[in-house]
Automatic annotation (TrEMBL):
It comes from Pandoraea terrigena. This is HTH-type transcriptional regulator SutR. It comes from the Bacteria. PANTHER family: HTH-TYPE TRANSCRIPTIONAL REGULATOR (PTHR46797), TRANSCRIPTIONAL REGULATOR (PTHR46797:SF2). InterPro entries: Cro/C1-type_HTH, Cupin_2, Lambda_DNA-bd_dom_sf, RmlC-like_jellyroll, RmlC_Cupin_sf, TransReg_Diox_bact_type.
Length: 204
């Protein structure tokens, strides 16, 4: 399973926020483990900052807690100046300085969360693909996904169709179909990625 390694400050926020949200929901570690299908040991390690959660683990936890993914990256009471300003502006802006960043160790993908704080029907990310890397871990289910290539060249596979896309090209497809993106060039490729979060999702 791919492991998401956040910069130290983001990892500390995730650890603290998971514990805070779980406690606020009145759930013990064992109860959250049952609801999320994530082991109690793993939850405990995440909350203590010993283990970095995978993308799938984050999705399972936030679904079980019934909160948007952004809630697990919000600074809460000790919020940064950027996030505090965003809330004053109405929680519909994500300042570049406050983007949570992921490094997916196994695949080499680098992800930046673009979605503003709060509950939203769409989730946006900026994903950087180093040469030869691909999205080997995806979430599948009802709804749609899509995006636009900002730089570089990628191979997009959806169901039984494979096409090459490059800078300026956009795409959109049914999220229930098998899909994958792979960098086929010698340069880093960057993609704006969005997904519908309104419906229950299943994992691949």
């Amino acid at each position: 399973m791919e492991t998401v390694r956040q910069p130290e400050n983001d990892q500390a926020v995730v650890s603290r926020r998971l514990r805070e949200v779980r406690t606020k929901k009145g759930l013990s570690v064992n109860e959250l483990a049952t609801k999320s299908s994530v082991s109690a040991g793993m939850i405990s390690q995440i909350e203590r900052g010993i283990s970095s959660p995978s993308v799938k683990t984050l999705e399972r936890l936030r679904t079980a807690l019934d909160v948007p993914l952004t809630d697990l990256f919000s600074e809460g009471a000790s919020d940064s100046e950027e996030n505090s300003k965003a809330r004053r502006e109405g929680n519909f802006v994500r300042r570049s300085a406050s983007r949570p960043k992921f490094l997916v160790q196994a695949s080499g993908l680098r992800k930046e969360l673009l979605t503003p704080e709060g509950q939203h029907d769409l989730q946006f990310m900026l994903i950087h693909f180093d040469p030869g890397t691909s999205s080997s871990e995806v979430l599948m289910g009802a709804g749609e996904k899509g995006g636009m290539v900002l730089t570089g060249k990628l191979e997009l596979m959806v169901d039984n169709h494979t096409v090459e896309i490059q800078e300026g090209d956009s795409f959109q497809f049914n999220s229930a179909l098998a899909h994958r993106l792979r960098n086929v060039s010698r340069e880093t490729a960057s993609v704006i990625w969005f997904m519908d979060t309104r419906r229950p999702r299943v994992e691949m």
